[in-house]
Structure formats: C-alpha cells, structure tokens
Specification:
Elements (H helix, E strand, L loop, with lengths): L1 E5 L8 E5 L8 E11 L1 H8 L15 E8 L11 E4 L2 E3 L5 H4 L10 E2 L11 E5 L4 E2 L6 H4 L5 H12 L5 E5 L3 H13 L2 E6 L5 H6 L4 E4 L3 H5 L5 E6 L7 H6 L1 E9 L11 H5 L4 E4 L5 H13 L6 E5 L3 H9 L6 E5 L3
Parallel strand pairs: 10-11, 10-13, 11-12, 13-14, 14-15, 16-17
Antiparallel strand pairs: 1-2, 3-4, 3-8, 3-17, 4-5, 5-9, 6-7
The structure holds zinc ion (ZN) (2 copies).
The site of one zinc ion has 7 residues, from helix 2.
C-alpha cells in the first residue's frame, strides 16, 4: 500500500489516504518520491479551470525520486537510480509524433495528473522513457521544477534562438525566472518584463540585462522592432499589440503561459515584418534530458521555497497568493 494526497473534488483540500497502485506495468517503473514541485497547472487541475480535471486526483508533476521497481520490459533504468518525472508520464511510443521524437505531441500522451496518479504521494509510476535520469551535479531537492516549468521555457529557446539573439521574457514568476536564467546562460541579450517593480533587481540577479515594466505601454513601445523571440509565461491579459510591436523582423511571440482570454493579433503587424505567434507545451524526453544536462553544466536551478508535503494545503494557498519566490517544492514526509 502507498500513501498519497488525494483531491476528491474541485477546490477541495487534499487529504492523505492509502492507495493501491496495482501490478506494475511491464514498461513502467516505480519511483519513491523524495521531492515534488508545485506548478501553477496543479492549481488549474485542482480548481478545474481548464475543464479537463478527473477526480479523485493525485496532483504533482515535478517529481524527483529513486527508482524502486522496474517492469519486465523497462529499459535503461535501475533500482536505486535518481530520476525525474514531469507533465507527461507516458506516450504510446509508436505514433508519428513519438517516432519523430516529439513524444510530448503524442495524441495518447498521458498527463501525469489527469487520469493518472501524480507525485504528491509516496510513490509514482511512469513509462521508463518518461522517467529521466537526473545528472549527478543537480541538487535533487531543487531539480523538480526543471521537469515541467524548466523544459517548457528551455524548449523554445533551443528551437528558435541563437546566442546572438535578443530575447524578452514576459513575466518573472515560476516559469519566467527559469527562462531568464536559461536565456542568459544561452548567451542571449535578455530583457525581463514584469508587472512588479519589486522584482526588477531580482530579475537582474537571474541574468536579465534589462528589466521593463509590463504595465508601461510607453516603455514597451520604445522597444519597437528589437526582439528575436518573446516568451510569454504569464496567464493574464497584457498589452499584446504593444508587445508584438517589439518584435524584430522575423521575430516570434511564443506563448507558454496559459492565458485564458484570446490574444488579439493584427494581421498587418505579422505580415509586414514577417513575424510569428506560436506556443508549445513541455518537451520530449530528449528535450528534458538535454535541459537537465544544460542546467547541470551551467549550474541553473530554480529559486525555491520548501514545505513538507504534509503542509500541502498551505503550500497551495501560498502559490495561489502569488507570493511564492519563485517555485515551491514539497519534500516527502510520509
Ligand atoms: Zn507544470
Ligand atoms: Zn505517440
């Protein structure tokens, strides 16, 4: 028997219960959870803001732990190995996307916390390909947020920019502060946009060369035509027209923050400067592995606040308050 923090219905506090995970799948591994990051998507599934939650739910999808069992057909992992599991915990491994290396675009990809038991638990299970070995140089206690938030901002950097490019990171929060660190280590000229002046100095500490208020439309307009890539990590409405205007010719606004209101885009501002608007979710197992290796090499870690997992409901309230600096990690204490 295993223990887990269960969400029984939308917006209900989580309660500790025992769960029966049943027999281990042949391709799966079982991991004893040591730490699990708390991501804004956990709140969205808790509140059913996206309308896709399934209850009872076990949330938590930034898992770091040790392999305790490997299925008969699981590859490359051994009992005792330190691994991480992120937003997805399985994919079908045979569709066009999986065979192309884009497992995170698999139509059958299994979200770790929707219809699957997540990481706010003593143990979690995942397909072996989605349990990524953690480099030894990474501190396991703070690596969790890299597995969802980290790869979500790292993947567009590696897809779209060169080290000589100018990059703007919109929002300095859980995702944004990691994006600033990655873009700075990548060699880009980095501008952070934040609505909170109290974060200006900290953003520079994370590696931003410039910081601009995301509420100051005049300051945004003065940056017209400058950025090769803007990564938006926020879930609120912004001066989208002004921000798209800051893109250089061939520049791209890339959305990774789940803003629910549509983003208005004027065709002419895209056509004349050959600009694009795009989005992406998390990343493939290889993208996650590449990100972990890059983070280890450049000593990139999220700035975290730790709670024991038994204080999970307080931790959710802290994240919802917007005061967390910048990512919360729960340490297993079953
Ligand atoms: Zn997440
Ligand atoms: Zn697939």
């Amino acid at each position: 028997m295993y223990k887990a923090w269960i969400t029984k219905a939308a917006k209900q506090p989580m309660v500790l219960e025992t769960v029966n995970l049943g027999p281990l799948g042949a391709e799966d591994v079982e991991v004893a959870v040591d730490h699990c990051g708390l991501c804004h998507s956990d709140i969205s599934i808790l509140t059913n803001d996206w309308g896709i939650s399934q209850y009872p739910a076990i949330l938590g999808h930034e898992v770091v732990g040790r392999v305790t069992a490997v299925g008969a057909n699981a590859k490359r992992l051994q009992v005792g190995q330190c691994v991480g599991v992120g937003w997805f915990s399985a994919s079908d491994m045979h569709c066009h996307q999986c065979m192309s290396g884009n497992h995170h675009l698999c139509p059958q990809a299994q979200a770790t916390i929707i219809g699957h038991r997540g990481g706010f638990a003593s143990h979690i299970r995942a397909h072996w390909a989605w349990a990524l070995p953690l480099p030894e140089k990474l501190n396991p206690a703070d690596a969790g947020p890299l597995l969802c938030g980290g790869v979500t901002v790292f993947a567009p950097l590696t897809r779209f920019v060169k080290p000589t490019d100018r990059v703007g990171i919109i929002g300095v929060g859980g995702l944004g502060h990691m994006a600033v660190k990655f873009a700075a280590a990548y060699g880009c000229d980095v501008t952070a946009f934040t609505s909170s002046e109290s974060k200006f100095e900290e953003a520079k500490g994370f590696g931003a060369n410039h910081v601009v208020s995301s509420r100051n439309s005049a300051a945004i307009r003065r940056l017209g035509g400058s950025f090769d890539l803007l990564i938006s990590t926020v879930n609120v409405k912004l001066d989208w027209d002004g921000l798209i205007g800051t893109l250089a010719p061939n520049g791209r606004l890339h959305v990774v923050g789940a803003v629910l209101e549509p983003i208005p885009v004027a065709a002419f501002s895209l056509i004349q400067q050959q600009r694009g608007v795009s989005g992406s979710p998390t990343g493939s197992p290889v993208a996650i592995e590449t990100m972990l290796d890059f983070a280890a090499r450049h000593k990139i870690a999220p700035q975290t606040e730790h709670f024991p997992m038994s204080k999970i409901n307080e931790a959710f309230a802290r994240l919802a308050s917007g005061k967390a600096r910048y990512r919360i990690v729960l340490d297993a204490d079953f």
